[in-house]
Amino acid sequence: MNIDHLKLLVCPVSQRPLRISDASEVESGVVMSGSLICDQNGKEYPIIGGIPRFVERENYASGFGLEWVNHAKTQYDSYSGINASEKRFYEQTHWGRDLKGQLVLEVGSGSGRFTEQAALTGATVVSLDYSYAVEANFKSNGHRSNVLIVQADIFAMPFPRGCFDKVFCFGMLQHTPDPKAAFNALPAFLKPGGMLCADIYKATLLRTLLNTKHYVRPFTRNIEPEKLYAAVVKYIDFMWPLASLIRKLPKGHGINWRLLIADYSSLGLKGEILKEWAYLDTFDMLSPKYDLHVSEQTFRSWVVESGLSDIETELTGHGVVARARKAA
Ligand SMILES: C[S@@+](CC[C@H](N)C(=O)[O-])C[C@H]1O[C@@H](n2cnc3c(N)ncnc32)[C@H](O)[C@@H]1O
Q1: Atom of ligand 1 at shortest distance to CA of 154?
Q2: pLDDT higher than 90, residue 24
Q3: How many domains would you assign to the chain?
Q4: Contact 151, 139 (CB under 8 A)
Q5: pLDDT at residue 208, as a whole number
Q6: Domain that holds residue 280
Q7: What is d(CA 202, CA 285) in angstroms, rounded to the nearest whole number?
Q8: What is the mean pLDDT of the chain?
Q9: Rounded to whole angstroms, what are the CA distances from 112 to 23, 132, 148, 161?
Q10: What pTM value is reported for the model?
């Protein structure tokens, strides 16, 4: 972590500032190892591999750690050659491209494909994830002087309240044990007048009935991530010749999804990259410990109850997105 970013962190228990102790491997103001100490309660949080850690490295989200370390670049636009991450970031947030001078919080960052997008706006970006996916994000974005990456829990975030101009949370609420409580953890970190953007998987009866993962994940979510990942790779490799034929049929990619082959050919992906996305997203379908889908109406009611204003909700290809503002 960059020493200048210390002021963005507090002890998640006492809410008091932290100090750096035993800093070693300091290179141009970046502390690669050491600890953060709260003088009020004596709690100590290690900095490992340049990343402040407020939770154990391994936890219920370790499957995501494995997924994003194995696929650290797969969904980055610069790697895949399509602009899916940039498009989703701007289409969902409706934020401008120049956020210089603003402080942005990203919750549930995974490999950091949206961290990159937020950082390119010139904002200072604080990016949090519960899993060791933060290590993949650090490899891609840790060199940026406007990015701070931490491993922490949405339910105990180590930041001062009321200090962020913008907060976004993509693709993660459904993967927590209590998505409504996770959503409710976000507004406290916004400044008055600050903007929030979050999304969640959408639920409809038909989608639930037709989505094969709902029948299979209850069995696969308890398999050790390494074993499940190896099985997914074998399955995709075995099915790929057939999937490639099915894809040529009208709506063929939809049939592939029913066969538990994450098929992103509709995004224009081809060849090996298409297959990489299939490994990644098939594992992503089957591994999460938690995966709750909600209706647009339910998600909207959470935003309304949170007291935010200027609320907009919208159905997208990824689920339901909500945008809202904290009263000034
Ligand atoms: C499907 S990934 C989405 C990653 C990224 N936002 C994207 O869309 O590419 C969900 C992420 O949420 C994180 N997550 C799950 N529970 C969390 C929690 N309690 N606090 C913070 N992050 C959590 C997981 O570790 C995982 O990286």
Answers
A1: 20
A2: no
A3: 3
A4: no
A5: 79
A6: 205-286
A7: 14
A8: 96
A9: 25, 12, 11, 23
A10: 0.96
Query: Per residue in 77-91, pLDDT tens?
Result: 999 999 999 999 999
89 and 15 inside one domain: no
For the record, the structure tokens of 284 come out as 């992503």
Instruction: Report pLDDT digits (tens) over 207-236.
Output: 778 889 999 999 999 999 999 999 999 999
* Residues whose CB falls within 8 Å of the CB of residue 168, separated by 6 or more in sequence, listed in order: 92, 93, 104, 105, 106, 107, 114, 118, 196, 197, 198
Give, using CA atoms, the residue closest to atom 9 of ligand 1: 110
Q: Is the pLDDT of residue 203 over 90?
A: no
Residue 117 burial (CB count, 10 A): 23
**How far is the centre of ligand 1, averaged over its atoms, from the C-alpha of 174 (Å)?**
9
Measured between alpha carbons, how far is 27 from 319 in angstroms, rounded to an integer? Answer: 42
What's the 176 CA to ligand 1 centre distance in angstroms?
A: 8
Q: What is the pLDDT of residue 205?
A: 77
CB under 8 Å to 37, separation ≥6 — which residues? 18, 19, 20, 21, 43, 44, 45
Residue 320: strand pairing partners: 200, 315
CA atoms of 159 and 195, how far apart (whole Å): 17
Same domain, 211 and 266: yes
Are 304 and 243 in the same domain? no
67 lines ligand 1 (CB under 6 A): no
Amino acid at 312: E
